[in-house]
């Protein structure tokens, strides 16, 4: 079994990153907040805190008028303090993101960069951190949509 491992590096220009895209599902309650979080695992028994970051941009899809991605936003989150947790299952949440009116429809797409902000003083864990899964929790209000691109 393999997972991408984010190393502890001191130079911000060398921090490791992965990219994901998320299309908001058709059961999402349009305009409601989403709550991103990362599932990950410490790769040794070192003590400390891992500081994670997500950089994202988000835009609606409009079948009539072309929409454009706005500048990115960065959110940071620190893990709980670790000690003797090699291969443990850890979740780090980033707090709520409330979409703007240009991001509040089904089929809107988030483009996301996930990175370990290990050059920041708040990241005190010296081991590698394996990224396992990234997801968004969201509120639903229907089983789907009545048409292909609208509720």
Helix content: under 10%
The rough form would be described as elongated
Biggest sheet details: 4 strands, antiparallel
What is the β-strand count? Answer: 8
Radius of gyration using CA atoms only:
17 Å
What percent strand? 35-45%
**Given the structure, what is the number of helices?**
0
Structural class: mainly beta
Instruction: Give unreliable regions as ranges.
Output: none
**Mean pLDDT reading:** 95
- The ordered H/E elements are EEEEEEEE
Terminal residue distance: 40 Å
Strand order of the largest sheet: 1-8-3-6
Report on this model:
- The protein is an all-beta fold and 151 residues long.
- The chain contains no helices and eight strands.
- The strands form two sheets. A four-stranded antiparallel β-sheet has the order 1-8-3-6, with no helix packed on it. It has a four-stranded antiparallel β-sheet with strand order 2-7-4-5, with no helix packed on it.
- The radius of gyration is 17 Å and the shape is elongated.
């Amino acid at each position: 079994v393999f997972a991408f491992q984010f190393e502890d590096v001191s130079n911000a220009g060398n921090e490791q990153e992965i990219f994901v895209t998320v299309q908001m599902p058709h059961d999402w309650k349009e305009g409601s907040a989403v709550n991103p979080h990362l599932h990950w695992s410490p790769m040794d028994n070192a003590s400390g805190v891992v500081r994670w970051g997500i950089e994202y941009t988000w835009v609606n899809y409009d079948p009539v008028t072309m929409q454009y991605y706005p500048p990115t936003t960065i959110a940071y989150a620190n893990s709980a303090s670790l000690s003797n947790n090699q291969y443990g299952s850890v979740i780090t949440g980033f707090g709520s993101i409330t979409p703007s009116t240009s991001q509040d429809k089904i089929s809107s797409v988030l483009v996301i960069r996930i990175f370990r902000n290990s050059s920041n003083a708040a990241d005190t864990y010296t081991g590698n951190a394996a990224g396992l899964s990234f997801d968004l929790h969201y509120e639903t209000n229907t089983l789907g949509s009545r048409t292909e691109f609208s509720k």
